[in-house]
Amino acid sequence: MKKNSIFVLVFLLGTLAFVPSSFAKNFTFEKLDANGDGKLTKDEAPFPGNIFEASDSDRDGNLSRDEFKTFVSAMHTGRSL
Q1: 75: exposed, middle or buried (C-beta count within 10 Å: 0-12, 13-18, 19+)?
Q2: pTM score over 0.85
Q3: Count of domains observed in the chain
């Protein structure tokens, strides 16, 4: 089952790589963190739950700035999380 999740994640990240840069610029951590608490919830994150969960490395239900940076880096390089 984990292999399937990784495949889906890599596929979705690959499709996100084709998003226009003007669109991607709107997805900065500061802009997404609507309540300014320094973390992103599933409601604030503009990507599917399975990607959110894969990006949430400490499994606390939120994305820290570092977890978000890892997600963005993986999105741009096409590597899995």
Answers
A1: buried
A2: no
A3: 1
